[in-house]
Design a protein that fits this description.
The chain is α+β, with helices and mostly antiparallel strands. It has 3 domains: 34-83; 88-154, Ubiquitin-like (UB roll), CATH 3.10.20.310; 159-190, no CATH class. It is built from 3 helices and 10 strands; from the N terminus they run βββαβααββββββ. A hairpin with a 5-residue loop joins strand 2 and strand 3. The chain is rod-shaped. It starts with 5 loop residues before the first strand and ends in a 6-residue tail after the last strand. The relative contact order is 0.08.
């Protein structure tokens, strides 16, 4: 068979042996069915591509499961810590009170009931304290694990001014509170002003 081409048939289609001894596949002509080897390669390639897609799908699913598990652990941890007695406010120190009572400060800030120190809103407590008539300045801070500290500076009344009603004036000359029944301050009264 040397020196000329010979043809043989195998289970993979028609083969052609060239003079060089190399095997070459004959391309199917129009109308002929493709060789079974081509079909096998196409199937193998599609399985390979499907395997890659499956690999990415499984990786994505595992990532999503891990993220959900971590999120669930974080939420469970937050719920445990926010409801734990260990982080409940047990000590409250208040400095600078003179005209305002401790009970009023506790009621305004919400510290007259059980509070978790981690969920206690310091800025909100400060703004509610600042709304009290005698309050000039308030600073609320937390000290872990169970203490809240409140430092206040009250207005210092210097005079009473008559503006249709009597008002307390602080050291800056700003009226900050009206005189309520039952209060008898030992302060001079200034008259002759109008509210404007």
């Amino acid at each position: 068979m040397m020196g000329r081409e010979s043809r043989g048939r195998s289970g993979r289609g028609e083969l052609r042996y060239a003079r060089s001894g190399k095997v070459q596949r004959r391309k199917p002509k129009n109308g002929e069915a493709a060789a079974p080897g081509l079909a096998r390669r196409l199937v193998k390639r599609s399985f390979k591509l499907a395997g890659r897609g499956l690999k990415y799908t499984i990786t994505g699913l595992l990532t999503a499961v891990v993220m959900v598990a971590v999120s669930a652990l974080l939420v469970a941890g937050y719920l445990y810590v926010s409801n734990s007695d260990y982080f409940a406010v047990k000590k409250i120190t208040i400095y600078g009170l003179n005209q305002i009572s401790r009970e009023e400060v506790l009621a305004v800030t919400g510290l007259n009931q059980p509070v978790n120190i981690l969920t206690f809103n310091l800025k909100d407590a400060e703004s509610r304290l600042s709304a009290l008539p005698w309050m000039a300045e308030a600073k609320v801070s937390r000290k872990m694990p169970d203490m809240v500290s409140i430092e206040v500076r009250e207005h210092t009344p210097k005079l009473l001014v008559s503006l249709g009603r009597l008002y307390y004036l602080n050291e800056e000359g700003v009226p900050f509170k009206d005189l309520t029944p039952g209060e008898r301050p030992d302060l001079p009264v200034v008259t002759g002003f109008v509210e404007d």
